[in-house]
Structure to design on (963 residues):
C-alpha cells in the first residue's frame, strides 16, 4: 500500500488577532491518494486557503501533523528544504503577484533550476523549452515581463515554474479565480492533461463547484474550519449527505434558463458565522434548515455515508441522511 | 529619448574625470608658491591667475576636484554599504533585532548630518586619534554621519518587498534567505539607493567644502574648494576671483549631481506618463498600413 | 407599454490614455424595457462596462473619453446633457450597484443616513420620511435588524450584508433603471444566490428595468430576460436568454458557453476552450474581431465587418424579441444574405 500523497491528522491553525483567536482551521483530517485530483471547496472563512498553505508549510500549524508521501512534512522541510521543494510545489491565487515584476519569464522559469543547481546553461535552456511545451506557451514569452502577458498566460508561466522541479504533488490556491470565464477552461484542461502526462497528484482549492465536478476525482467540502463532507466527486455531488453541501450545490446556477427557472432552490439565511466565534455543537447549526436540538450541543464527527465518503452530520449515517 | 539621461550625466562625468586625471590636467604644482606672481590676473601661464601665495588657481581648482572627489567617493560608498547592510538586515530579520537597529538609526537621523560630523571631528581631535590625518578624520566623520539615511531607505524597501507574494513563491521553490535577498530584494534596494546617492553626492561635496571652510577638513596646502573660499575671503573686495572661481566650481558640481539624481529618478517613472503622442500617431499609421496591406493581399 | 425606458443607439466610445487610444465600443445599440432584465455578457476588454456606465459619466479615472451616438433615458438624450444635469438625472433615474460595495458606500458615514440622503434628494422625501424609507429599504434588502443597522458604519458589516446595503442605497433614490456591474463575482456561492434572488424580487415588486453586466453565465441564467453578447466592443449576438444560452449562434457565444461546465448535466461539459486570446484593441485589424479564434472563419471574415442581422423571432410577454447574430457564415448557413 503506497503512502498517500497527503495525510493530515487533527490539523489546527489558529491566529491570535486583536479581535480574538481566529480558528481558521479547527481540526481537519485530510487524506489525498497518490495520483488524485482533489478539490477543496467552501466559502470565505472556511479555512480552505489556510489549510492548503499549512500543508505546504507557508503557514505554521498550531496543532496536528501533516505527512506527505509518508514523511512528516515539518521534519522533512526542516532537514531538507530543497528536497522538499523538489517534491511539493504550490500555485498561488494571484499569478502576477507570485512572480517578480522585474524578471522576464525566462528568468522566472530558470530560477528554480538555478536555486537547485540543475544542469548547465545548455541543459537549462533545453528544460525551459520543455516546460513551455508542457504548458503550451510559445518560446517568444521568454523575453517578456509578466505584466505584459494575459491572465491565462501568466498562470501558465506559474504552472511551468512549479513543474520545473518535477514535483510529484502540486497544491493550487484558487488558480482560476483571477481568470476570465473562457480562460478557465483552458487552464483546467491543462491541469488535467498535465496530471495524466506526468502522473501528478493535484490538490486544488476552488470555489467554482461546476469546474470541481468536471475535473476533480475527489473533493473535500469545508465549513468554518472543519470538514463537512468528503468523498469521490460524482457520487458525492449526486447525493450529498451534509445539509451544507446540499445548500452549496443548490446555489450553483444552471446555464440553462429553463432549468434554472424550474429547479428547487435552497436559500440559506444570513451569512456564515465568523471563525472568531464558532457556534457550539455543529458549526452549521445556526443556518441549517433541518437543525435539531442535539445539533446545537454535540459537535459531529466525520463518519461513513451512503455515497461512499464521509460527512460530519448527526443526521447522516451510512444508510440515510437528510435531504433538504 | 534614451539619449537624454546620458546628456545629463555629462557634467557629473566631467567632474569625475577631472578628479581622476587631475595630475595630468594641472599646469603647475598646486602647492608651489611664487611670491613674484602673487594675485596675478589670468594669463597664458596662469589660466585663472594666482592666489595670494602665488599658487596657480587653475591647478588648485583641478586639485580641489580630486580632493573632493576622493573624499566623496569614499564617504558615499562606505555610507551606502554600511547603511544598506544595517537597514536591510533590520528589515529582513525583524523582531527585537530590528527594534534595536531602528533606535540606532533614528538617533543617527535625529540630528543634521553636518552637526554629527562636526561633533565626531571634535571627538576625533583627541590624543587617541592623532595618528589619523585631518582629511581622513573628516571622511570617517562624514561616513558615520551619512549612513543612517541609507539604512532607513533600505529597511523601507526591504519591508515593502517582503510583503509581495513572489517572495513567498521563492521560498516555496526552496530558495534560501540569502538567495532571496541577493536576487530579489537587493536590486530593489540598490535601485532606490543609487538614485538617492546620485543626488546626495552634490550635498556631500558641499559638506566637505563646509567642513574645510570651518577649518575642520583638509589641511593646507592640499587644495580644496572650501579651503580656497576661506583663503579668498580676505581678498574678496579687490580680488573677488579668488572666491568666485571655487564658488562656481562648487555650484557647478552640486547642480550637475542634482540633475543626475533627477535623471535617474525619472528613469524609474513609467514611460506611459512621460507622454507618447508621437508614438501613438506612429502606431495608428502602422495599423492603417497593415490594414491596407491585408486588404490588398486578400482582394 | 413597450417603449424602452433606456435606449442606446449606435454608441461609439473612444478611450484615450497618454500611450494608447482604444475604441472600446464600436457602434453598439441596446435598449431595456421597464420590468425587464437585460444581461450584457462579455469578458474583460469586451467593453461591457464602458458601454453601460460610460453614457452615465461613470468612467475610470485618468482616461479621456469620447462618446458618440445617443443614449435616451425616458426619451431624453443623456449624452447631450451637461455634467450637473447628468448628475441630477443619474441619481434619480439610474441606480448602480458595483462589484465592490465600498465603491458606493462612504466608509466615514453611517449607512442609514447615506440611504436617507438619497431618498431626500431624489425621491423628495422629508427627513423623517426618508429615515423610515431607509430602514424599510434595509429590511427589504434582507438585512436583519434594520433599525440597528441604520446606525452602523460600513466596516461593521460583512461582505454579503454590505452588498445588500449597496442595493438598498441604489434603490433609495427610486430609480427606474438598476444597473448591476458584476454584482456577484466577488461573492460566495450561497450569498450569490441570495443576492440574485433579491434583485429578481425587487424587480418583480417595483417593475424597474435591470441591466446586468457580467461574465458569469449562471447569473445571466437566473436573472436575464434578454442577453447581449459583446466581443471586443461589438455586439456578437443578442436575443432572449433562452435563445442565446440554449441555442447560441455566434461562434464566440458557442465557445463561451462550451467552456462553462453545466453542473447538472451528466455528460462532460465545460471542457471546450476557445483558442487564442482577445485582440489588442489598440491595434485592430479590419473585419471580424473574432476571426483569429474562430473555427468557422472564412477569407471574407478578415475583410468585412460583420453586421447584426435577425435570424429568428421569439414572442414573449413584452412583445417580440429578435434573435440576432453578427456572423455572415452563420447567417449564410441560415439562408440569410449579408451585404456590407
Amino acid at each position: 500500500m503506497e503512502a498517500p500523497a497527503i495525510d493530515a491528522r487533527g490539523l489546527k491553525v489558529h491566529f491570535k488577532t486583536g479581535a480574538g483567536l481566529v480558528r481558521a482551521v479547527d481540526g481537519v483530517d485530510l487524506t489525498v491518494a497518490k495520483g488524485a485530483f482533489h478539490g477543496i471547496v467552501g466559502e470565505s472563512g472556511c479555512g480552505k486557503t489556510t489549510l492548503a498553505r499549512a500543508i505546504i508549510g507557508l503557514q505554521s500549524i498550531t496543532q496536528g501533523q501533516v505527512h506527505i508521501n509518508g514523511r512528516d512534512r515539518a521534519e522533512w522541510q526542516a532537514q531538507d528544504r530543497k528536497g522538499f521543494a523538489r517534491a511539493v510545489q504550490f500555485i498561488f491565487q494571484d499569478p502576477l503577484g507570485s512572480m517578480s515584476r522585474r524578471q522576464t519569464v525566462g528568468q522566472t522559469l530558470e530560477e528554480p533550476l538555478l536555486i537547485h543547481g540543475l544542469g548547465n546553461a545548455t541543459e537549462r535552456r533545453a528544460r525551459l523549452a520543455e516546460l513551455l511545451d508542457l504548458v503550451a506557451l510559445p518560446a517568444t514569452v521568454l523575453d517578456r515581463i509578466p505584466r505584459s502577458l494575459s491572465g491565462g498566460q501568466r498562470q501558465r508561466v506559474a504552472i511551468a515554474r512549479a513543474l520545473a522541479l518535477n514535483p510529484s504533488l502540486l497544491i493550487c490556491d484558487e488558480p482560476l479565480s483571477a481568470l476570465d470565464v473562457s480562460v478557465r477552461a483552458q487552464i483546467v484542461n491543462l491541469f488535467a492533461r498535465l496530471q495524466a502526462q506526468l502522473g501528478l497528484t493535484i490538490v486544488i482549492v476552488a470555489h467554482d463547484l461546476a469546474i470541481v465536478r468536471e475535473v476533480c476525482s475527489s473533493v473535500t467540502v469545508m465549513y468554518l474550519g472543519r470538514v463537512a463532507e468528503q468523498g469521490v466527486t460524482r457520487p458525492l455531488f449526486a447525493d450529498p449527505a451534509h445539509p451544507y453541501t446540499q445548500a452549496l450545490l443548490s446555489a450553483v446556477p444552471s446555464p440553462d434558463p429553463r432549468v434554472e427557472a424550474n429547479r428547487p432552490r435552497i436559500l440559506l439565511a444570513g451569512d456564515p458565522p465568523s471563525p472568531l466565534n464558532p457556534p457550539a455543537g455543529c458549526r452549521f447549526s445556526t443556518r441549517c434548515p433541518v437543525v435539531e436540538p442535539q445539533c446545537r450541543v454535540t459537535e459531529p464527527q466525520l463518519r461513513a455515508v451512503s455515497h461512499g465518503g464521509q460527512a460530519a452530520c448527526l443526521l447522516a449515517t451510512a444508510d440515510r441522511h437528510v435531504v433538504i | 529619448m534614451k539619449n537624454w539621461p546620458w546628456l545629463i550625466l555629462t557634467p557629473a562625468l566631467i567632474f569625475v574625470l577631472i578628479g581622476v586625471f587631475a595630475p595630468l590636467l594641472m599646469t603647475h604644482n598646486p602647492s608651489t608658491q611664487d611670491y613674484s606672481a602673487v594675485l596675478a590676473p589670468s594669463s597664458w601661464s596662469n589660466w585663472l591667475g594666482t592666489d595670494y601665495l602665488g599658487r596657480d588657481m587653475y591647478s588648485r581648482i583641478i586639485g580641489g576636484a580630486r580632493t573632493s572627489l576622493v573624499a566623496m567617493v569614499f564617504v558615499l560608498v562606505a555610507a551606502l554599504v554600511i547603511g544598506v547592510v544595517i537597514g536591510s538586515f533590520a528589515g529582513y530579520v525583524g523582531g527585537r533585532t530590528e527594534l534595536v537597529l531602528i533606535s540606532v538609526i533614528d538617533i543617527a537621523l535625529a540630528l543634521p548630518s553636518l552637526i554629527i560630523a562636526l561633533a565626531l571631528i571634535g571627538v576625533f581631535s583627541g590624543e587617541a586619534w592623532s595618528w589619523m590625518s585631518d582629511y581622513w578624520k573628516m571622511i570617517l566623520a562624514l561616513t558615520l554621519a551619512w549612513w543612517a539615511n541609507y539604512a532607513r531607505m533600505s529597511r523601507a524597501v526591504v519591508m515593502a518587498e517582503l510583503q509581495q507574494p513572489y517572495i513567498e513563491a521563492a521560498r516555496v521553490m526552496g530558495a534560501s534567505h540569502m538567495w532571496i535577498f541577493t536576487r530579489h530584494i537587493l536590486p530593489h534596494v540598490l535601485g532606490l539607493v543609487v538614485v538617492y546617492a546620485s543626488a546626495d553626492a552634490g550635498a556631500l561635496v558641499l559638506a566637505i567644502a563646509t567642513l574645510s571652510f570651518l577649518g575642520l577638513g583638509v589641511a593646507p596646502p592640499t587644495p580644496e574648494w572650501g579651503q580656497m573660499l576661506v583663503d579668498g575671503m580676505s581678498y574678496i573686495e579687490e580680488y573677488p576671483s579668488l572666491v568666485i572661481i571655487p564658488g562656481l566650481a562648487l555650484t557647478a558640481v552640486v547642480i550637475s549631481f542634482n540633475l543626475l539624481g533627477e535623471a535617474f529618478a525619472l528613469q524609474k517613472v513609467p514611460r506611459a506618463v512621460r507622454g507618447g503622442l508621437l508614438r501613438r500617431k506612429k502606431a495608428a499609421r502602422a495599423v492603417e498600413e497593415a490594414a491596407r496591406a491585408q486588404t490588398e493581399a486578400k482582394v | 407599454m413597450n417603449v424602452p425606458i433606456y435606449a442606446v443607439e449606435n454608441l461609439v466610445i473612444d478611450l484615450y490614455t497618454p500611450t494608447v487610444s482604444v475604441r472600446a465600443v464600436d457602434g453598439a445599440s441596446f435598449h431595456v424595457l421597464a420590468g425587464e432584465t437585460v444581461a450584457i455578457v462579455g469578458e474583460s476588454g469586451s467593453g461591457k462596462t464602458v458601454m453601460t456606465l460610460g453614457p452615465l459619466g461613470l468612467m475610470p479615472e485618468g482616461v479621456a473619453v469620447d462618446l458618440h451616438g445617443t443614449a435616451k433615458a425616458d426619451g431624453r438624450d443623456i449624452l447631450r446633457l451637461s455634467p450637473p444635469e447628468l448628475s441630477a438625472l443619474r441619481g434619480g433615474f439610474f441606480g448602480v450597484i458595483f462589484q465592490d460595495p465600498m465603491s458606493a458606500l462612504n466608509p466615514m458615514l453611517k449607512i442609514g443616513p447615506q440611504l436617507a440622503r438619497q431618498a431626500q434628494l431624489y425621491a423628495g422625501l422629508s427627513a423623517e420620511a426618508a429615515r423610515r424609507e431607509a430602514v424599510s429599504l434595509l429590511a427589504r434588502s434582507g438585512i436583519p435588524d434594520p433599525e440597528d443597522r441604520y446606525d452602523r458604519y460600513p466596516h461593521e458589516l460583512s461582505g454579503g450584508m454590505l452588498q445588500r446595503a449597496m442595493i438598498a442605497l441604489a434603490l433609495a433614490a427610486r430609480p427606474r433603471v438598476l444597473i448591476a456591474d458584476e454584482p456577484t463575482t466577488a461573492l460566495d456561492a450561497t450569498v450569490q444566490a441570495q443576492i440574485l434572488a433579491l434583485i429578481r424580487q425587487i424587480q418583480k415588486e417595483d417593475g424597474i428595468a435591470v441591466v446586468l453586466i457580467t461574465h458569469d453565465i449562471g447569473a445571466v441564467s437566473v436573472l436575464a430576460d434578454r442577453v447581449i453578447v459583446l466581443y471586443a466592443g461589438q455586439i456578437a449576438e443578442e436575443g432572449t436568454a433562452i435563445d442565446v444560452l440554449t441555442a447560441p449562434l455566434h461562434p464566440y457565444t458557442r465557445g463561451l458557453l462550451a467552456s462553462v461546465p453545466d453542473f447538472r448535466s451528466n455528460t462532460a461539459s465545460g471542457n471546450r476552450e476557445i483558442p487564442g486570446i482577445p485582440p489588442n484593441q489598440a491595434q485592430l485589424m479590419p473585419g471580424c474581431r473574432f476571426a483569429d479564434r474562430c473555427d468557422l472563419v472564412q477569407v471574407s471574415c478578415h475583410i468585412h465587418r460583420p453586421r447584426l442581422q435577425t435570424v429568428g423571432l421569439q414572442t414573449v410577454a413584452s412583445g417580440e424579441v429578435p434573435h440576432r447574430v453578427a456572423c455572415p457564415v452563420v447567417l449564410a448557413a441560415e439562408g440569410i444574405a449579408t451585404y456590407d
In short: Chain C has a mean pLDDT of 86.
